[in-house]
Specification:
171 residues, two-stranded antiparallel ribbon, 8 helices
């Protein structure tokens, strides 16, 4: 299994919004430019994230997107918003049953086989649910995990953060 491009982009969008100052909406233009995603495709992704209540949208001038306050977002929630329920092993046909046509007592064994495949799907869902956007940011930013900035003005924001970090070293 690999993440679809849309899922990977949605995860990155959620990371951007997580770091974004929660009092300021992040513009779709900035997200599009930062991640090199077309505005049209970005709107499709954002619509799914908004409909699944992972992101708050504010249309119009000064609008954009915000991370939902006080919400822990898991990779599974993002995956599900973009792709639907995790189903790596989904039988789209009855080929397996055709192989064993005429063999006695295969129906029960076939049902057991389907249960095993479903267990794999559930294990994957559980694994994706155990990892959050908070985890990603904490792992990457370490001691700077609490940094919040306005990506709409990211160059100036980062400059200010670096200045503060330098000042704190002098203490």
């Amino acid at each position: 299994m690999h993440l679809t491009k849309g899922t990977e982009q949605a995860i990155c969008i959620m990371i951007l919004l997580y770091i974004q100052d929660r009092n300021i909406y992040l513009s779709s233009k900035e997200i599009s430019e930062r991640l090199d995603i077309s505005q049209t495709y970005l709107k499709k992704i954002m619509r799914k994230l908004v409909l699944n209540k992972l992101v708050k949208a504010n249309p119009g001038v000064g609008g954009g997107y915000k991370y939902r306050p006080k919400k822990k977002v898991t990779f599974y929630q993002i995956y599900k918003a973009i792709n639907g329920k995790v189903e790596i092993f989904v039988l789209k046909s009855d080929y397996i049953e055709k192989i064993f046509t005429g063999v006695r007592h295969t129906h029960t064994r076939y049902e057991e086989y389907l249960e095993h495949l479903n267990a794999i799907n559930l294990a994957l869902e559980e694994a994706l649910n155990s990892f959050t956007i908070d985890d990603v940011v904490a792992n990457i930013l370490k001691e700077n995990v609490d940094i919040k900035l306005d990506w709409n003005k990211w160059e100036k924001e980062l400059e200010n953060i670096y200045k503060k970090m330098e000042e704190n070293k002098g203490l």
